[in-house]
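DM from R.C. (forwarded with permission)

"hey, sorry to bug you on a friday — could you get me a structure for this? deadline for the figure draft is monday and I only need the backbone to look sensible"
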Amino acid sequence: MNKKTLTITAEQYHDIINTMRKGFSGCRPNSRVAAALVIEANLGLRISDILKLKLNDIIKDGDRYRLDMTEQKTGKKRTFTVLPEMYSYIKIYCLENGIKPHEVIFPITERAVQKQLKAVCDYLGIEGVSTHSFRKFFATNIYVNNNFNIVIVQRLLQHSTPEVTQKYIGIESKEIEDALQKHLQLI
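My reply, with the result:
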């Protein structure tokens, strides 16, 4: 884990993606990198796994979709739930870009993604952001939006313990926050 990599806010997420899609003076629009980062922010996958993704890797399973994969970094087998809206987003991206279901959706390197992201963040004046910031964004939002349930985030990220996850997202547990708030004795 890169401790220098910061978690982005929702506002930064939107600014980065929108700027990447539109481009700016000296930098052309890049919908490919924007789409890869949107997927990372919504599925919590590492960018290395997203860059190997094919549309036919996502399987219809009843009224939902799932992605069975082996994580490149850890070698762990993992099943992801892919919401129908996310599947539609990916499918539309593939259709608009002439990508066949058996082809890699993002035939680019991690370095190319990082380079584009750095250019956009430099333009926006945002520091400490890497592709991993989007995975941390996913984890932090899942944590906050699910009543501070660290175990859900742990399972989604496939960390060995809740403590590892807590350290990863850099947030104290809700119980600690509540205990400090109850103790507060300002005069």
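R.C.: lifesaver. Residues 110-124 form the longest helix (15 residues).
me: no worries. The chain has a mean pLDDT of 91.
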